[in-house]
Every structure is written in C-alpha cells, then in structure tokens.
Amino acid sequence: IGLEQSSSMLQGFGVRVSAGNSEGYGIPCPATILKPNGPPLPPLVVELERVASNPSSLALHFTSVTSPDDRGAIVSGYFVEWSTSDSFDSGIVFNATLSADSIYSERLSSYNGRDKLFNYYLIEELTPGVEYFVRVSAVNEAGTGHSSRSTPLALAPGSKPTDLDNQVTVTRVVADTTVSVMESSSTLRVSWRVPFSDNGFVISGYLIEYWVSNGVNEVQEISLQSPSGSPAQGTFTISYGGDKTDSLSIDSSAAAVKSALESLSTIRAVRVWRSGENPDYKWAVTFMSEYPSISGLMLTLEDTTALIDVSGGVPTLQILVLTSGVLPIGYNTETITVEDPLQTQYHHILADLTAGQPYNIQVSAANELGYGRPQVSIPRELAPPIQKPSSPTNVILSVASSQSLEVIFSKPESDGGETITLYRIEWDTDPAFGSLERSPLGSYSFVSPNNGPGCEPCSYQVTGLVKGEHYFVRVYAYNSHGYSGDPGLPLPRFLSPKTTPDPPGVVNISPQSVDVHISFPPSDDDGGAPVTKYKIEWNAMGYFAGMTSANSDHRAMLYSPHNVQTITLSAEEDDLGGVFRIAFGGHSTNDISAKSSANDMKIALESLPTVGSTIVSRVSISNGLTWAITFLINHANLSTYGPIESLTVSTDLAALPHMFVTDTLGSSGSSLMGTAARLVVNNEVTAFKGYEQQILTTQCDTSAGILSGHFAVSFEGAFHSDASALDLKLELETIASLGTVKVARRKIHDRINSFQWTVIFLDRLGNVPLVDVHDRLSCSDGSGSPLVFATESAQGLLPRMDGPYAGEVELNALDYADGHIIVHPVGGLMRGMPYHFRVSAWNGAGESYGKTQYSMPSIMVPNDRPDPPSSIEMSSIDDSTLQINWDATLVRGVSHHITKFKVELAESFSDTDSQFEDEVESFDIANAPETQEIILESTADDMGGHIIVHFMGEKSSYIYTDSNAGDVKQALEGISTIETVNVSILSHTQDSLSSYGQRWVITFTSQNGNLPSLLVDTGSAVPSTIATGGSLIGSSSVVRVETVSDGGLPASFITPSILSRDKTYTSRLFTFNGHSWSDPAKSRYAISPSKSAPSPPREVRVNVLSDTELGVSWTQPLYSGGDPLGAYRVEWDSDARFDHSSATVSHVPGSEDYYFVVKNLDPLESYFVRVLAYSSMGFSEPSMATPLLSNMQTIVISLVETTGSVNFSETFAVEYSTADGFQKVTNPISVYATSREVENELNSLGHVGAISVDREDRSFSFDPSGIETNHFSILYRITFVEEESVTLSVNGDSLGMISAVVEPE
Predict the structure, then answer these.
(1) Going by C-beta distance under 8 Å and a sequence separation of 6 or more, which residues neighbour residue 1237?
(2) How far are the Cα atoms of 48, 68, 122 from residue 118, in angstroms, in the given order?
(3) How far apart are CA 382 and CA 380, in angstroms?
(4) 488 bridge partner residues
(5) Strand, coil or helix: what is 849?
(6) Residue 792: HSE in the Cβ half-sphere, 13 Å Cα cutoff
(7) Does residue 1074 or residue 1213 have the better pLDDT?
(8) DSSP for 462-517?
(9) Average pLDDT over residues 854-880
(10) What pTM does this model have?
C-alpha cells in the first residue's frame, strides 16, 4: 500500500526477505523485482464525427491515456467498440484493438486546451444512416480498463445526397387544347430523377434555381502565415453559416478542403485551389452555389484551430474576400417537397417567365444533412417560346342601337411574347362565318394603340346591321407570328341589333281603396327584341310631421299642389311653456300656447286674413313639438307660380309682423319659456315644384299702345288679346299630349290690355319645349308694335325614385296577353301620401331598362273609401222644403280630399223602412264659391281716389272708387292668383243711414275652398282688410273687406220647394273623394215638411246717426216658413239680454230692404242691436246688427299759440298706446304737417287697424273774425277704424310756445 510509481519507471520495486532470531537477521534471500500497476483509466475525450468523403465511415478522435491515468503501466493500445445498441449487448457489435502507434492524429495536444495527445481512428464499413454507439478503453499490461462513451453518444454515418441520377432536362411547354398560350409562353418544364444515393438519409426535397444571366462567384482565400518561416503543424476548423468542418490537417489538399466544405449543410458546391508550400499555403475557395456577401456570411476559423511550427512559434490563418459574389440577374428559387419517398421521376413547371428570354436552371437534392451539389440542366439554358397571341379576353357583345352592335374586349391573356399590333373583328349571320364564299359577312381591323394602356378595354361598333337579325361576332389578336389560333368569342354568342324599348305610351293611375292601380298598354316599339318585363317605380312626393326634410333636393318632393311648412319648437330640457306668435303676409296671430294642439294651430293660422284653408298635424319630438302646416289654398306668383313666403315667428309680444323671424335663435323676446327654447320655420314642400312653367307675354312695346286682336299658339289655338286664364286653359287641354294644365293670368300694370299667362303643365312632365306663339295682334295708336313671346320660368323636372319611401316591382310581360292593357295594383302605400309612378320596359338591350314614362296624373293619393258624414239632422223650412245638416268631419278620407256630397231623399213609410230604391230625389252638393265684399264708406258724399287689392302676394292695378263692376272684375282677374270672379255693386241705403259709398260683392267662381281675404291698400299702411287715407279721399273714408260666405263644401242643404207636407221623408248622405263614394249614412229620423218660423233677417247693419240716434237696416229673410211675413222686431239694449226696448216694423210685401231709426238714446251708452222676423208661426232666430262703419274712435289733437311767437320749426311727437299693451312713438312731426303726413306717420307704427286724419287750420290768417280765433290754431281729427281703446298723447318738448290739447270727439 502506498507504492505508486510512474509508468516511465520500468524497474518497479525489489523485495527480499531475511530471517531473524534472537541473534539477529540472517542473510536475505535473493531479491524479487515487481512493478505495481493496474488497468488504465479511459480516455478523457472521445469525439465522433462524420467523414466528409466517406458516407459509410465515422471519424473517432480520442485522447491518449498517460500517467498517472495509465495506472503505472504504459498503455500499449486501445480497445474500440461500436454497436447499433446503446447497451452494446445486442444488435450489431464490432470492436477493434488498436496499437498506440497506429492511431496517429494531426491534432496537437494543445487542441481545444486539452493538453493531451490526440488519436484518430477511422471506423469503416458502416451502414449509412444507421446510428452507432462508440466507446473506447485503454489497454496496458495490467489489462483493459473502463471505457469512455463518445460525444455525441451516437452518430449515423452518411452525407448529403449524391448527384442526380441522369441529367436534369428542361423543355418548352407547347400550347394545345389543354395548355394556353399564356402558359406556353411563360413556362418551362424541368425534369429530373432522384439522386444515385441518398447517402443514408431520405431525400426530403429539391431546390430549383433559375436565372436569366450569370452572376459573379464569390472567392475567399485562406492563407497560412508563420512568423518563423518554419513549417507549421496542427489542424484547423472552418465554419460557415452555423455549421463547421471536422479538424483539417494544416497540410490538407485542395480536394480535402473542398470535401470538408461541401459536407457542411450550408454549402453545396465549391471549387478549391491550393497554392504554395508549408508554411505559405493558400487555399482559394470559389463558391459555386452560394453568395456569402449577399447573405452577409463568410468563412470563419473556429477556436479549436491549433497550430505550431518546429521552432515553437504559432502560425496563423487568415481569410479574406478576394471577389464579392453577385446574384445572377433574375435569380429565383422554388422548393419542391417530397411527398412520396418512392417517387423516382420529377417534373415541375416554372411559371411567370418571359417569353423569348433564355433561363439557366439547376437542381439540388436535399436530405436532413442539407442540399447536395446542384446539377445544371440540359440544355444549359432555354427560353419559353415566342408565338401567336392567345385569344382576346372578356369579349362582350351588347346592343348599341337598332342597327348596330358593340363589341368590347380586353387584350389577350398572353401576347405570345411579342407585342400585339392588330385586332380583327368579324361578324356574320352564319355561326360558321361563311356567308360570303367561306368568308364572314364583314370584318374590321384596327391597329392596337401601344401608348399607355392602349385601348384597354377595346371596343368597336358594328354598324349597318339589320334590326332584329341575329349576328355572330368574333375577335382575333395579331403579332408578328400571326393571328391568334382561336378567336375571342363573346357572351352572349350572338345578338340582334336593338335598342331599349320605348316605355308605354301612357301610364294611367287610379286609386282602388288604399291601392293604386297602374295601367298601361304594351310598348309601341319593342326596340328590336320582345319586351320580357316591365318595371313600375314609385316614390312619395308629400310630407308629414316628423318626416326627414328633403325640399332642398331639387328633384325631391315634386308635383305637390300645396305648400307645406313646419314650425319646430324645441328646448334643451323638458320644460317648454309660454306663448308665441306667427306672422304671414304682414299680419300676425294672437298668442299661441307652446302646448297647442294641431287644431289650435289651425284655428290660429286661419284667423289671419292672409291664410286660407290649412291642414295641420303635430308630432312630438325630444323636448318639443313640430307642427306641419299644409296650405290648401295659398299660392304666390313671383318668379314662378306656387311658392309662398315663409311663416315667421316671434316671442316678443311687442314685435310687429315685419320684425318676426324664421329662427328665434338669438332674437329678442321672452314670451316663450324653456331652457334654450327655440322656434324654427322650415319650408318642406314647395307647391308646383317640378312642373314645367312657361310664361306667354302679349303687350305693346309702348305704354300708350292699346293691344287688340288675337294671338295663336302652334297647336292651333286662337285667343283674344284679353282672353281669360280659363279660356287659355280650356284651349290648351284640347291637345291630348299636353294633358291638364293650370293657367294664371297677370295684367301688366303699365300697359293697356297687356297680359302675362303662366302655363303650368300638370301632366306633361320633364322639360317641355317652348310653345310657339304667333302674332295676330295690333297696337291701337299705331306708334307701338305688339310683342308676343314665350319664356320658360321653371324647367320641368323628373323626380328621384330612391329613398326610404320609394319602391319598385318588376312584371313578367309574358304573364299578360299580347296587345292587352297591363294592369297592376301597387299596395303597401301610406294613406294620404301623394305618390308619383313611372314605368319602363326591358328587352335585354344594354342590360338595362329603357326610358321611363311618367304617370298621368302626375301624383295619386291612396285613400280608404271615405267615411260618410255623421250627425245627420233634418228640419223643416216650410211645408214644401226641408233643411238637412251634417257633420263633415271625417276619420278617413281626409276632409280636404272630399270633392262633393250626395244627398238622397226618399219617402218613408214607417220609422224603419225607407224606399231608397224607388222614387229617390238625389242632389249633388258641390263646393260653394267664396264671396267677399269690398265695402267703401264715408260720412259724406265726397269719396274719391283709388285702392289697390292684394291677394296671395299679388296685387291689382288701381281700382277707382267709382269703378263699375266690369272695371273691378278686370282689375281683380289681372291678379294672377285670382282665376275668375263675378262682381256686383250694391249702394248703401242713404235714406236710412248717414253713410255714403258702395259694396263690391265678389264671388270667386273657380277657386274652391276657404280662401284668404282680399286685402286693400291705400298706400298708408301695410295691405289689410281695412284701410284709410293715402290714395283714398273723402270724409272719414274707409275701405274694408268682409267675407260674406266661406268657400268650400257646405255642411247643410235646403231642398227645392217640391216636397209634400202629406209625406214623411228620410235622407241619406254619401261623400266622394274624387274616386270612390262612401257608404251611406242615414238621418236619425224621418220628418214631414211643415210650416215654421221664418229664417232670420239678413244683412242687419247699424250706424250712428247722432249722439242719440242709431239707424238700423236689413233685408227680408230668405225663407218665410210657409206663412206670409207679418212684421219685424227691432231690439236694442246696453247688454246682450235685450230686455230694454224694442219696436215693430211692418213687413211690406214686395219690399226686400227695411230700415228703422232708434231715437232718444243715452249718448254715454253703447248699444247692442238685433232684428227678428215674425209670421203666424212665430219669431225667427235673431240677427245681430254689425256696425256699418265698423268700430271707429276719433281723437282730436289741437295745437294753439295765441301770441304769434311761431317760427315754423316747431315739432311734436304722438305717443300711441292700446289696451293690449302696444306702445309706440312717432317720429317728430312738423306743426304745419298735412293730414297725409300725420296719417302716414301714425300708420307707419304698424299696429293693426286703419287710421284716417283730417286737418283744419283755424289760425287768424284763415279766420280773421277774431271770434274765438287764435293767431295759430291747427286741429287734427284722427279716426281709428277697427281699433278700440286707443290712447294718444303729445310730446311737446319741441313745440316752443305752442300748446297741445288731446281730447276724444
């Protein structure tokens, strides 16, 4: 124990033994020599590497075992074992005993810092691809020691694939029925077989490389440098792209370096040239398949490189780039993955190549160790063929007209590698294109443009064809190699020249309950092909509250006969309250509640004299309300006929109508409550928008000329120069193609007998050509010439047919018999909403419908059958006459769409049985005309001057107070917003009343409904229903307008006096909306005619005769009740109880007009007056008297100065106030102002009513008598008409010495 000895000491230890006794030790025995040792330890490093040049070998590197690891005995050899089994006890097991002197390695002991002598052994005759486990043991004289396992633990011998079996071939792909020209001229076919050997690893894929021009191969140089100049020894290792070689001897040949580099997974092929001798070796490496500089790579030396020279120096290796690589031009790669390991032959198409361009191609095979050497194709380069172009593409044949077809096409998919220079289009009625001796009927060639996109797409119209004949068309493309093999054939294959069909000649629409029936004949011209379908389109042309506004779109909301405006009241919070007012035409309403219902709004608006009948609807919005107002009557005629001014609103209770606005944002006023409360007025629908409007003008070119004669229009109508609007309308409507028209006539004020007619085409829609007007007129004085011409004031429009309320339906024309009228109901429409319809036809031409034909009439309103009237009551007028009353308010049918009522009267034989089938008296109840009166009054027979009448924004020429009925009629019918009127004149009864003047009774004979009031204008104030002063002269002269009877459908009817008192009658009523009658509604009971009290007296008027007398006049009742009238009772009282006084006036047979003077009245009292008629059947209902001169109040302002200190510069201002809180002050007025000047100042204040001023100069210069005469004395007598409780005061700050006195008269 403890005896250790280096293996280098061969003697070992000697041992001898001596025997000893008490005497000591004896002579030792001969010595025995023995060296202590044991089996050696295993090598410290065992490395296993593949052999670059031999796929069936593995290289084994291991370190020598030396002292002390040799355990005292020099290692004489090594025992190497390799096996396919990790345990080395099964499978294939091999071993070899290696003598130490047979396993020399080039590696230095300094390799990788091991400081151990390295050994090398080549394990051969292995199976490529099979993993082998290797272990190594050292052997000495003591035996074999333990083994060391290799690193890696196991390794499969092998290498990248060998070269491909046989050559790589590349061929062209020939165009045929399965291969297009595009494919042929842009592809090459590459073919190859699998490699000779996969070298132990399954082939996983192939790399195809192709390019059009070679690049530059990169060259890198490895050079050896020795400081001492002595030969170098040792090994070096090269890496590239993450992979590295095994140790290479410093004396490696070019072939060895090449083999090592090509074994790397990152390098496929190199060429190596070694020059020089050790220690001046240079290895030039040319990369044949990789481009390191392009990839940012380079050969590098690994740290395991270990070199030494014989003198102990350390040589070095250096790597430099001699030539940088450049990729080939057009370099591309494609990777082919092996799907079937048993496949031996491969083919691949390279696509997207350029025709005529030669390509270089090579193929490399891959296994898991990397790609092998690439194999160049045979031939080395080949180009896809240049050839004829392919057929033109996207060939579309369409109809251009009734004699032409249009062919549209795109360039061929491939030009065959050569520029296309020509296209040829051929057509024929023969699908074989052989009509003309095997040639097509026609052809056309044109040069293909080569600038920019050329003619993409190209088109050509084949003209001169026969309508309805089938034509086949084909297109060829041409390059220098010829025409395309096949033509481009269109879709459809053939067509007939045709156009889109004409629409039906007329489209009639009619309501059928809530549907609208569309009827039209087949198209007169089918365009050259049968009509296969029709399209009906419709869109809403009206407005309802809450609907999105579209009036700003010039093609939306057309053809409405009515203007529609909205008033929107909104706030930021739900806290609206208070009141506001509305103005229209210079007049304003009373206060309107912020919570007003639709009916409240209607009543407020129709209270304005400038507003006729309306329909109002209301809808709630967030924190507010919107009222939609449809003006059933109001139109204007400014630049075009129809549009009216906007309503305006105000929240300022003191504001005058001209101060109102359409948006109260930022305006003054506090009558409306709510957070950021705001009123906005919008025009939603414009009346007659979309209709063509033309103006015919006939006049003399001088104001002195009087136009006379006739004029004619091109469609054979002849008219007098003063023809009415109705005359022109009726004549124009005789022309069927024009349909219905509306005509408005305006007199040209500065010309005599000269007019403008506005013609509105209600059925002829769109842009209508101007009518031709022919001159057959003359000017009477001979100094002027007649001017007759037509102008367009509004171009007709066709509407948009899209949006949320539009719809359409397609009809199959084959479902209808040839030549028969086509009828189709359109349902699902909104009741009460006007719709426009149009129809178009389809025959396939242009893949679109043809032109559209609009409907006649232009709009239709779908409605339910109307409701019948309700609450039918019958009463007796006399013993041969009955009166029938009813409530005309309808739930359905909308009252403004009702055009008439029908009353049927039948004898009743019992309370329940009515014989309406036999002997029925039937009466149609149509619109009653509106009657208004213009009343001219004065207190003396000195009225004179003139007035102007306004109506719906238009005004008349001067109408003089002494005009006859014809003059008034002519002036009124010269207003374009008035159609026709009848005028009669009634004088006041001067025997009973101290008033002078006359009444012009005006009946509107052709305008239905409740009309706005006529307004009178004397120039002293805004036009109103009452006026004074200005152009009207005379003592307290007043002109005013009263409505005698509203126009529209009546709600009562008095039968003719044809009934028998011996019979009992019952009645029933129907309503008619222009299209359908309602069900009947019967009276609740039957009655017999019987005598009754007379009807009330008519036209009962009262006038002040003196401070104690009133004059009362009346006209006898319309009906006596069956018995003769006996007398009249006149009653008067200071209150409405009429229990104070009365008088009886006898009826005089044959006399219609009566009067009575009420005397001995209290001058301080105001009186109510009424009159009743009397017969033996009793008293009639009373008729209240109306003041003849309206409500009048007179105030006198006296200006007096007694000393003569007047310098003529003094002024005064009049302060005006009324009981309703209105206050205003005039501008300064001169003390010498005329009555007209004072009148104009007061009228300019703008309050409702009329003001008349008389002036008296009582100064000394005019009255030198000296009796109650002052040096300066001016009296202004101011009369307020239609105004109560007026207070005047005078601001005399600028009157100087003049005093002012204000007192009522």
Answers:
(1) 1229, 1230
(2) 13, 17, 14
(3) 7
(4) 475
(5) coil
(6) 14
(7) 1213
(8) E-SPPTT--EEEEEEEEETTEE-SS-B--BSSEE----PPPPPS-EEEEEETTEEE
(9) 89
(10) 0.65
